Amino acid sequence: MNLAEVVAASRCLLIDFDGPLCSVFAGHPAPAIAKELQAVIRHHRGGELPPALAEVRNDPLLLLARVPELGDEHLTKAVANVERDEERAAIRSAAPTAGAEDVLRAAQAAGRAAVIVSNNAEAAIGDYLQAHHLTEYVQGVAGRADDMNPRFLKPHPFLLERGLTMVGARPDDVIFVGDSVTDVEAGRVAGIPTIGYANKPGKRERLAEAGAVIVIDSMYQLAEALVQVSAEAPR
Predict the structure, then answer these.
(1) Going by DSSP bridges, is the β-strand pair 174-178/194-197 parallel, antiparallel, or unpaired?
(2) Less Cβ crowding at N or C end of the chain, within 10 Å?
(3) Using one digit for the tens of pLDDT, what is the confidence trace for 39-56?
(4) SS (H, E, C) 80-136
């Protein structure tokens, strides 16, 4: 199947946030946030930073996902709160992905519901949608809630399943757009075909090997496919 055929076979678009829609940490680097989260952990543990957490230097969300392994709910909550606040700060300098707004507008014109499915905090996603006047194009946000156990971050299918529930859809009704191997893995577990967005060198091969049904290099490609489907729809 080509991209237009994959899009035509769906009635809902699930889309990751950081990458396909914007670069969250463009002006507020992720490594600095990871370092701050590690400082929170050290403070709560009397200066100790377990090796599995010390080795995570560039990915604060991976660090957050590993914190529950320490068995300290108070610490997990503290780290999650700092991550949420840092993401909300990062949103102020987030860089929109070229073609992302076109995708959301084209999805609406094609009669496809759009739901954001992301490991990022729902509050940060909401901030971005409001700041960029995109709220009307999004029918739901299945992001990281304040009370969510970080164990349920992708590649766990929990967030994708939440997205399905929001629009009353089944896995075979939707497509998911993600830019990471964990996105593709989550889609595979949930039974949802995933379009890989290769926004960096080397990603095309990794996403294809992980099982993406199609890999695109530009969000404009997806927008064009949606426009084509809309134009070919019976009237």
Answers:
(1) parallel
(2) C
(3) 999 999 999 999 999 999
(4) HHHHHHHHHHHHCCCEECCCHHHHHHHHHHCCCEEEEEEEEEHHHHHHHHHHCCCHH
Per-domain boundaries in the chain: 3-23+95-232, 30-91
What's the Rg (C-alpha) of the chain? 18
Chain position carrying tokens 């969250």:
24
What pLDDT is recorded for position 142? 98
Q: What are phi and psi of 176, to 5 degrees?
A: -120, 135
Instruction: Grade residue 234 by pLDDT with cuts at 50, 70 and 90.
Output: low
Work out the average pLDDT over 52-69. Answer: 95
Q: Which of 142, 131, 34, 51 has its CA nearest to residue 88?
A: 131
For the segment(s) 3-23+95-232, the CATH number from 3.40.50.1000, 3.30.430.20, 3.20.20.30, 3.40.50.720 is 3.40.50.1000
Q: Cα separations (Å) of 55 from 18, 52, 59, 82?
A: 22, 6, 10, 19
Q: Helices 158-167 and 181-190 sit at what angle, rounded to 10 degrees?
A: 60
Span 176-215, pLDDT tens digits: 999 999 999 999 999 999 999 999 999 999 999 999 999 9
Task: Tell me the C-alpha to C-alpha distance, in Å, between residue 204 and each of 26, 165, 193, 222, 228.
Answer: 21, 30, 16, 15, 24
Helix (H, G, I), strand (E, B) or coil at 162: helix
Per the DSSP assignment, residues forming a β-bridge with 116 are 15, 141
Q: Which two tokens stand for residue 101?
A: 């707004």
